[in-house]
Amino acid sequence: MKRIAFDVMGNDNGVRPAIEATIEFLHNNLNYYFILVGDADEINKYVKDNERIKIIDVKETIDQNAKSLSSRHVETSMTTAIKLVRDNEADAVLSAGSSAVYLTQLILILKRLNKIKRPAFMPVFPTTKPGKKFVMLDVGANIITTYEMLVQWALMGSIYAEIVLKINQPKVGILNIGVEDNKGHEYHQLAHEQLKVDQKINYIGFVESRDLLKGNFDVVVSDGYGGNLVLKTMEGTVLSILTLIRDNLNQKLKYKIGALLARGAFSNVKRQFDYRNVGAALVLGVNGLAMKAHGSSNKKAYLGAFSQLSNALDNDFWTKIKDAFT
Amino acid sequence: MKRIAFDVMGNDNGVRPAIEATIEFLHNNLNYYFILVGDADEINKYVKDNERIKIIDVKETIDQNAKSLSSRHVETSMTTAIKLVRDNEADAVLSAGSSAVYLTQLILILKRLNKIKRPAFMPVFPTTKPGKKFVMLDVGANIITTYEMLVQWALMGSIYAEIVLKINQPKVGILNIGVEDNKGHEYHQLAHEQLKVDQKINYIGFVESRDLLKGNFDVVVSDGYGGNLVLKTMEGTVLSILTLIRDNLNQKLKYKIGALLARGAFSNVKRQFDYRNVGAALVLGVNGLAMKAHGSSNKKAYLGAFSQLSNALDNDFWTKIKDAFT
Question: Residue A64: is its pLDDT beyond 90?
Fold first, then answer.
């Protein structure tokens, strides 16, 4: 039985999507067990007796706007959930709470993985090639990035792509503003030179943000600032263009009929490029398996997060990443 | 008569699109005069006698892969075109050659505008609001950025939005990975505090990349690294999603018929979000009006660049920006 500690608080939409997603996931995944941490009065509104759900009542939540460190001494639904992994009462932890606070608490409670300088957020991205995905890390855990971090993240991402995405010799790239050797910051160039000679990594080179969605890379490493800008630009651009198309299709009856006929094609595109799923990111580099869900996750987004997390658990990703850094 | 010095070399597609665009533009804009600089044998293949076109024969071009500074002493089509502005023989210069080389040569030949620390590339972006555009600077001229640069660029962009885009009290934002005061690098926070109290600028605050296309800002300032990532992410995402939609629409006859009926709607979207036009960027902060066109500009892209450049010239933007910094 795999056990997931789930901080159900800290979501803009309340606890309901978390509980509904949990019940649906457990229905389809008989070897999973959830420990829901949060306000039990709220949780019990949506959950019936379920032998694979345990509820831990913690009403205290972290102020989303608090500085990450000031909340160090307060016991919250988030810290309680993380401690379940530390104490080996859960195999993974999931939260939709504030990224900065979550990251700080993960580092404080679980500690960093051996040798790892800084953890990174790693979401999975769709591409225009059907079924083809890639991971990018970091997308916002770190503002200041060094080349050593990029090299470590390249290895963690590469192991994930191999073990979980089942890609043989995953193609690794460094996000940059050009593909020539002399482009970008000094840390880009230093990591570039080091990865070129790294035997454990199938390093291809720099990749520009305009080429990310073509699906030619399996793992892309980036400073957290640049990765975050790119992630949110994609999200905003996909939403903007789909909205613009919908508005234009509504302008004439002829267009509306056309849209009705072509509806299936649009559904395919929306399914393939659903950026709600990209909101969920593994937090790699702490001493335990941890995932961050989008702060306004709906049921579908949580199901996406569970699916990613269970892929990692079912493939024993955690053991492999731990072994690689010891 | 407004005079544009046009380096027609350094385009991946040869000189033909440059000449064809020039002839079409001159036909519709009787108060313009072009000085085409480049290989006269090539240019003369496409141009007939035109009293508003002068040709300067310079066959030497800059090696696109050369380090920017090593080409300092070679006379090329690019340097010749820039010198026409310096010597007051042209009112503006346009080139599609290498960004890094162009920037270096502009600074060497024209010098920086009084007080300006570093020039910036400033393209105009479309938004989902019909007819609404915004400018972002810098998008790649500078890797290392300080808060003083962001503040200067905010003023230059604001003047452009007011004078050329005719926006009263343009809304200015700083691109960042969150909207809270403590987000981003130190230079984000310092520029944020300074712009808050700047009387000359209508500063709104930080803006996240996912919100750029909503059209709530007129001017967005960014470090060149982040701006370049965002620009190219938008370009790649728009292209990817339109390609994906087209591929899906081709999969079934029913979809094809639907697409045919809805064709007008798609044309509107493509027109509104044509990222070929975004390739053209003003180079603000040097002592003269300069524009960089996309390295693989076609005729349409050049016409877009001419249109932007003539908007600036017709509104006497250059005088106003010069006055603001003296």
Answer: no
In degrees rounded to 5, what are phi and psi of residue A14?
A: 80, -170
Say how far apart CA B122 and CA B135 lie, in whole Å: 6
Chain B closest CA to A306's CA: distance in Å? 25
Per-residue pLDDT of B195-216, as tens digits, reads 999 999 999 999 999 999 999 9
Q: A237 and B213 in contact by Cβ < 8 A?
A: yes
Give CA separation, B212 vs A59, B136, B241, B266, in Å: 37, 10, 18, 22
Let me know: does A82 contact A93? Beta carbons within 8 Å.
yes
Q: Which residues of B touch A143 (CB under 8 A)?
A: 184-185
**Reported ipTM:** 0.93
Q: Which of B229, B251, B256 should be substituted to probe chain A, the one whose Cβ sees the most A Cβ atoms within 10 Å? A: B229
Q: In chain A, which residue's Cα lies nearest the Cα of B268?
A: A248
Nearest-5° angle of CA B110, CA B112, CA B116?
160
DSSP codes joined into one string, A195-209? HHT-TTSEEEEEEEG
User: With the CA atoms of B117, B163, B126 and B26 taken in that order, what torsion angle do they form, in degrees rounded to the nearest 10?
Assistant: -100
**Average pLDDT value for residue range A67-81:** 74
Rounded to whole angstroms, what are the CA distances from A306 to A96, A257, A276? 12, 38, 13
Select the residue from A98, A210, A252 to test the B interface by mutation, using most B Cβ atoms within 10 A. A210
Given a cut of 90, whether residue B10 has pLDDT beyond it is no
